[in-house]
Design goal:
Shape: rod-shaped
Number of strands: 0
Order of helices and strands: H
Structural class: mainly alpha
Strand content: under 5%
Largest sheet: none
Radius of gyration: 32 Å
Distance between the termini: 101 Å
Length: 80
């Protein structure tokens, strides 16, 4: 009986170590995904800022040439 109890405790210890190893892998995977999401977020933020700056510059250029170009923002007709 003592031998079976010892074997069971050893088996239980091995199962606990295997579970801990798998849990460590899951945690590591979540950390990698989190880091990747942070990188994507910062990358997209930079690109969105660049597009906003381009749109602002385009709008300023369009406004500067209002006789040639006209931005229509509503349904009212431009009378020049």
């Amino acid at each position: 009986m003592a031998s079976q109890s010892e074997d069971f405790h050893r088996w239980l210890g091995i199962q606990g170590e295997e579970f801990q190893h798998k849990l460590d892998l899951v945690v590591e995977g979540h950390q990698m995904v989190s880091e990747k999401l942070d990188w994507v977020e910062s990358s997209l933020a930079g690109k969105i800022d660049a597009v906003a700056a381009d749109l602002t510059a385009h709008r300023a250029d369009t406004d500067a040439h209002h006789i040639i170009y006209r931005v229509k923002e509503d349904d009212t007709e431009y009378k020049g």
